[in-house]
């Protein structure tokens, strides 16, 4: 089980889930919004028998921010590896953390990538 | 008594064959699909021994003919308990003094003997579809048992087509007189009649309703009285017309002019002019009725509950059962031609008038179903033996397995953990076994919840896209359920352990929570399977919120009994599990000395001789048992099921993990030990070995007797 903590801020972050953890917080002056992200593979369901990929966004901004999260991952269908993508819009209130999405059915070993774009509203 | 009937009836028309040999020859004929025009349909295709020689699930109206594309016109009857059926007589005298049509074989009684009955499907165009008796004999001559046939009936028997065909029918009739196969009288109710056990309170209420002339009134036809020293057959072979609705799933019913009127035709012809008999069909035995999913002569209903609702509401809410006329009015008795309504039975509970009250309450119906389930053959009392559990653990595990799964899956009717530990913490009420519907709604309390609250904005892959999940449980590829038997259930109720307040009271009372020895708990896991896999699994069909149905196969089963102070633990898996996608494989070999012997306990076989052969249960394996925390050398005992302990097999010990089930209070709030070991970086790690003192230090947490499902209490 791998868990990836990625801290970032500014207009966007783009992350590869297999990368080593990266920590960074950009100065507010250079960004439209201050936030950090956290993405992880988790087991869920009764007896933890489903694999779920979770992306969290934590606002460190005094304003309400609006985030667009793009995800790309893989899954197997009839033994064939396929790609799948998704995009979610989320509103994050000041100093709050939200799960912008939980995705199940993806292949954990293949990894997943995501990017988060946020701006103050 | 049975032996006399056996010999007498089977010797009819046979010269040389000994009756027992003839029965065994009949068995081969019965199971031989090459005797059909299609080459794929044996007598056993429809009369499946796994279902009391009745139809398998979903096959109540069978497809036959040379290409298996011609639909049947009636529901396949069970062939059990016909051994003493009297020949048909229009003037049968019944126990109540009535003189009326009765007896015979098939739904309309047109066959006078088992031999005559056997002739019908062999030659019916929509069944085995042989063109003539000679056609059957040609196939018999090529069969693998042709030599036995000659031995039984003479070396030149195949030169005499009529005699040979008659011999085949006699053999089939003889087979159907084998007591063990066709009238075993080994249901729970038979055990009750023999004084071996007591019925539950619910079953007793069900018997009373069954007999009560003002309530169920079932016994007026499905008689419960023993006759000539023989246990009751639950039919007096009488004929009646209860106004069964038309079944649109029968192809012949597409013709609005077609009516199957039973005794008066069109299949039976000798009473075609007896208008008063139209719509009359013979009352079947109620034995094994709970194992059917096609009821009445036309199979229009698919569950016992539907049948009982029909009896209860036929005259109060006919719109629930019958089709409608073009003007929107209900076409009551729509499987009878106009003008035949007077033939329909009006005895209780079919004696209601619109606006009245039904004869049975919903609770009555539950009770009746509970009783009817006691009529299933093959009842095995739940084993209970501390000595066997401790000393012959693997054999005992299989005994429990058989008792809980055959002939019917008993644990499915037990309350689930969600039924016991209600979300409002209320008393779950008196014990009630439940009959599962043909298609189980995904929202059923059977299944452990996959919490949407914990996973907001949940999406899943569907047809190459990520789609929002409105029903997380339906999206889960696996389903888990936990059930407890009545002994455990009653104990929980008696001590109010169904909510946290009750549990805290119990552990603070100074009296240890300790379940009675007869307590059993089951945990089962299911996976979505394909239709092609159906024959290998015990299956269930789940109905999703969108109305679609999904097939699940049972992959894993924990059986836990309180035979020992630290319980008896056994786990079973489907043999295909290691090959399933996402399965970690069996990371420790199986230990089954009962099936395999001591030399190679991982032989990966089901045991022989305990009735699993020819059933889906032969595809399940005992992975092992646990009766102690550590072995003789002090090493931790482990036991894992690759589906139920996925991701933590090496650190899995049922007995140690469950020893942590307990409850305490901090600042008035209930607290419990975590299920998994969170002290390491591993995603899932269990506990093994002897329970550690610090788990229960200072009495902060007190034991709830190994039952983790108690943690579900609110």
List the helices and strands and how they pair.
The complex is a heterodimer of chains A (121) and B (714).
Chain A: E1 3-6, E2 12-16, E3 35-44, E4 50-59, E5 65-77, E6 80-92, E7 97-104, E8 113-120
Antiparallel strand pairs in A: 1-3, 2-8, 3-4, 4-7, 5-6, 5-8
Chain B: H1 2-10, H2 19-30, H3 43-46, E1 63-64, E2 70-71, E3 89-93, E4 99-102, H4 114-123, H5 133-141, H6 146-153, H7 161-175, H8 179-182, H9 188-193, H10 201-211, E5 239-240, E6 281-282, H11 304-313, H12 362-373, H13 386-391, H14 393-405, H15 417-420, E7 439-441, E8 458-462, E9 465-468, H16 472-475, E10 478-484, H17 486-494, H18 500-508, E11 520-528, E12 539-543, E13 549-561, E14 568-574, H19 593-596, E15 620-626, H20 654-659, E16 662-666, E17 669-671, E18 702-703
Parallel strand pairs in B: 7-12
Antiparallel strand pairs in B: 1-2, 3-4, 5-6, 8-9, 10-11, 11-13, 12-13, 13-14, 14-15, 16-17, 16-18
- Report the average pLDDT across residues of chain A: 75
Tell me how many strands of chain B there are.
18
Question: Any idea what the shape of chain A is?
Answer: elongated
- Give the helix tally of chain B: 20
CATH fold-type name of chain A: Immunoglobulin-like
Most residues in contact: chain pair: A-B, 29 and 31 residues
Please describe the structure with a list of short key phrases separated by commas or semicolons.
heterodimer, A: 121 residues, mainly beta, Immunoglobulin-like, 4-stranded antiparallel sheet, elongated, B: 714 residues, alpha+beta, Cytochrome Bc1 Complex, Chain D, domain 2, 7-stranded mixed sheet, 3-stranded antiparallel sheet
């Amino acid at each position: 089980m791998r868990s990836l903590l990625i801290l970032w801020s500014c207009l966007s972050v783009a992350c590869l889930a297999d990368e080593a953890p990266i920590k960074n917080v950009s100065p507010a002056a250079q960004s439209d919004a201050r936030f950090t992200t956290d993405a992880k593979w988790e087991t869920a369901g009764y007896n933890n028998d489903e694999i779920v990929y979770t992306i969290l966004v934590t606002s460190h901004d005094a304003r309400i921010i609006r985030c667009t999260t793009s995800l790309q991952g893989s899954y197997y269908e009839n033994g064939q590896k396929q790609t799948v993508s998704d995009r979610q819009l989320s509103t994050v209130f000041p100093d709050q953390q939200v799960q912008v999405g939980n995705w199940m059915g993806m292949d954990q070993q293949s990894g997943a990538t995501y990017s988060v774009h946020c701006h103050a509203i | 008594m049975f032996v006399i009937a056996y010999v007498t009836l089977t010797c009819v028309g046979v010269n040389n064959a000994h009756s027992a040999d003839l029965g065994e020859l009949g068995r081969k004929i019965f199971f031989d699909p090459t005797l059909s025009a299609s080459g794929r349909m044996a007598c056993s295709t429809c009369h499946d021994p796994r279902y009391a020689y009745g139809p398998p699930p979903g096959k109540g109206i069978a497809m036959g003919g040379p290409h298996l594309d011609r639909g049947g016109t009636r529901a396949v009857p069970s062939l059990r308990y016909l051994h003493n059926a009297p020949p048909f007589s229009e003037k049968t005298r019944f126990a109540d003094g009535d003189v009326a049509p009765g007896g015979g074989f098939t739904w309309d009684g047109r066959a006078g003997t088992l031999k005559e009955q056997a002739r019908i499907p062999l030659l019916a165009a929509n069944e085995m579809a042989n063109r003539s008796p000679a056609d059957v004999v040609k196939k018999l001559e090529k069969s693998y048992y042709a030599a036995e046939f000659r031995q039984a009936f003479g070396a030149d028997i195949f030169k005499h087509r009529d005699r040979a065909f008659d011999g085949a029918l006699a053999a089939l009739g003889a087979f159907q007189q084998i007591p063990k196969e066709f009238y075993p009288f080994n249901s729970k109710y038979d055990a009750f009649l023999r004084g071996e056990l007591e019925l539950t309170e619910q079953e007793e209420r069900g018997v009373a309703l069954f007999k009560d002339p003002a309530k169920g009134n079932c016994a007026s036809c499905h008689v419960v009285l023993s006759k000539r020293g023989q246990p009751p057959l639950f039919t007096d072979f009488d004929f009646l017309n209860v106004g069964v609705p038309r079944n649109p799933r029968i192809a012949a019913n597409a013709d609005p002019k077609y009516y199957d009127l039973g005794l008066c035709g069109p299949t039976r012809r000798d009473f075609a002019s007896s208008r008063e008999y139209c719509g009359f069909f013979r009352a079947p035995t109620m034995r094994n009725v709970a194992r059917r999913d096609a009821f009445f002569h036309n199979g229009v209903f698919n569950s016992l509950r539907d049948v009982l609702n029909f009896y209860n509401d036929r005259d109060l809410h006919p719109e629930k059962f019958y089709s409608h006329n073009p003007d929107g009015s209900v076409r009551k008795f729509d499987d009878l031609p106009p003008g035949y309504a007077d033939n329909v039975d009006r005895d209780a509970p079919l004696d209601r008038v619109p606006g009245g009250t039904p004869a049975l309450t919903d609770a009555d119906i539950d009770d009746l179903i509970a009783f009817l389930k006691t009529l299933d053959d093959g009842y095995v009392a739940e084993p209970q033996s501390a000595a066997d559990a401790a000393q012959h653990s693997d054999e005992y595990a299989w005994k429990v397995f058989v008792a809980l799964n055959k002939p019917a899956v008993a644990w499915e009717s037990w309350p689930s953990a969600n039924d016991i530990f209600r979300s409002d913490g209320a008393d779950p009420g008196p014990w009630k076994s439940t009959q599962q519907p043909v298609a189980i709604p995904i929202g059923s309390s059977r299944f452990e919840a996959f919490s949407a609250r914990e996973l907001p904005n949940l999406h899943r892959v569907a047809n190459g896209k990520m789609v929002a999940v409105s029903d997380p449980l339906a999206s889960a590829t696996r389903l888990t359920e936990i059930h407890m038997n009545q002994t455990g259930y009653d104990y929980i109720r008696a001590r109010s352990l169904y909510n946290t307040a009750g549990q805290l009271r119990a552990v603070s009372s100074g009296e240890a929570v300790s379940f009675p020895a007869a307590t059993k708990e089951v945990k089962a896991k299911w996976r979505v399977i394909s239709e092609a896999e159906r024959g290998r699994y015990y299956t269930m069909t789940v109905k999703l919120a969108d109305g679609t149905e999904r097939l699940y196969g049972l992959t894993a089963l924990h059986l836990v009994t309180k035979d020992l102070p630290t319980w008896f633990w056994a786990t079973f898996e489907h043999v295909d599990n290691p090959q399933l996608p996402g399965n970690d494989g069996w990371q420790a070999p199986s230990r089954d000395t009962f099936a395999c012997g001591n030399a190679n306990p991982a032989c990966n076989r089901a045991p022989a001789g305990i009735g699993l052969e020819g059933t889906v249960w032969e595809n399940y394996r005992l992975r092992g048992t646990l009766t102690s925390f550590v072995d003789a050398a002090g090493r931790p005992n482990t036991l894992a099921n690759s589906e139920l302990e996925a991701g933590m097999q090496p650190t899995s010990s049922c007995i140690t993990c469950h020893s942590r089930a307990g409850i305490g209070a901090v600042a008035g709030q209930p607290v419990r030990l975590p299920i998994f070991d969170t002290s390491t970086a591993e995603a899932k790690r269990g506990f093994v070995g002897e329970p550690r003192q610090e788990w229960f230090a200072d009495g902060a947490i007190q034991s709830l007797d190994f039952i983790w499902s108690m943690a579900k209490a609110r």
